[in-house]
Amino acid sequence: MLVKYLKAILIFLAFSTNAVAQNYDAIFERANSFYEQRSYDSAKSNYFMIYSSGMISKELFLNLGNSYFKLDSLPSAILFYEKGLKIAPGNKDLMHNLQFCNTLLKDKNSIKKSIFINDLILSFLGKSPNYWAISSIILLLLVCILFFFYWISNEYSYKRIYFYSLVLTLLLFFFTIFLSAISKAKVKDSNYAIIFSPVAKVMTAPSVNSSTTYQLHEGSKAKITGESDQWYEISFNERKGWIEKKYLKKI
After folding, report:
1. How far apart, in whole angstroms, are the C-alpha atoms of residue 142 and residue 147?
2. What average pLDDT does the segment 27-55 reach?
3. Alpha carbon 194 to chain centroid distance?
4. Is residue 120 over pLDDT 70?
5. CATH of domain 2-109
6. Domains 2-109 and 192-250 belong to one CATH topology
7. CA torsion, points 203, 207, 210, 213, in degrees to nearest 10?
8. How far apart are CA 59 and CA 164, in angstroms?
């Protein structure tokens, strides 16, 4: 009975993982095909479908950014290039496209060009959440397989090997879940945002009745230093001020 139950779990997990992966691969290839045909809006919609489901990668962010750029949506292109660099610091394609977008802005963004050891570590630990999710599913499959062989084995030496392998794989399974949590936190957390308004006023205080200290234009990247109700306190080139949240999208 237990053997049949384990087999059912293995078949279900293997089928589910394979089906999900094939589904997203098909959508991604369809989006690529639309892009090659210069149907950029259809390409963007398909890429965004994958992004909305929580499946992310540097390739997806790059292609989303490229699609938005072709559709003349510069702020959205910059937003997704920046998102891509969060999980792939120093990626040449993302950096090149972001630098080109920067030449088209009225307010030039600062672009980090040097990559330090902590960036490389965070790049590994902060891989796409679905990368670690798939890894955890594979490890769970392996746990089930090892447990199955441990259960049916009659020789003590083999049973011992399966047991220790099972414990090690189980620890790796929990470790990948932990890394997935880190990855999700890294992707969601951001102290920077992109301006999504042709012209946005930066005020001296979080109030529409306060005076304007300076203005920013669409595509500008500002650092968020504080928050109050419907306002963000931001810093741009060491100039601080308050801006309404509706004009920004977090990276």
Report:
1. 8
2. 94
3. 16
4. no
5. 1.25.40.10
6. no
7. 0
8. 38
Indicate the burial class of 41 (C-beta count within 10 angstroms; 0-12, 13-18, 19 or more): exposed
- Torsion-angle region of residue 250: left (phi > 0), alpha (psi -120 to 50) or beta? beta
Q: Which two tokens stand for residue 24?
A: 């997203």
* Overall residue count recorded for the chain in this entry: 251
Paired tokens of 168: 């090690």
Query: Each residue of 153-168: pLDDT tens digit?
Result: 888 888 899 899 999 9
Identity of the residue numbered 144:
C
Query: Both tokens of residue 214?
Result: 């300076």
Closest of 218, 175, 173 to residue 194, by C-alpha: 218
Note the pLDDT tens digit of each residue in 80-116.
Answer: 999 998 888 878 999 999 999 999 998 877 766 555 5
Cβ atoms 91, 68 nearer than 8 A: no
Residue labelled with tokens 């610091």 = 89
Other CB atoms within 10 Å distance of the CB of residue 153: 15
**CA pair distance 34, 24, nearest whole angstrom:** 15
Instruction: Indicate the angle between helix axes 156-188 and 117-125, nearest 10 degrees.
Output: 110
At 58, is the pLDDT very low, low, confident or very high (cuts 50, 70, 90)? confident
Instruction: Report whether CATH 3.30.1330.60 matches the domain 192-250.
Output: no
Residue type, position 79, single letter: L
- Mean of per-residue pLDDT scores for the chain: 84
Q: Which two tokens stand for residue 33?
A: 């095909």
> Domain map of the chain by residue range?
2-109, 129-188, 192-250
Best CA proximity match to 60, nearest among 74, 81, 76: 81
pLDDT above 50 (res 2): no
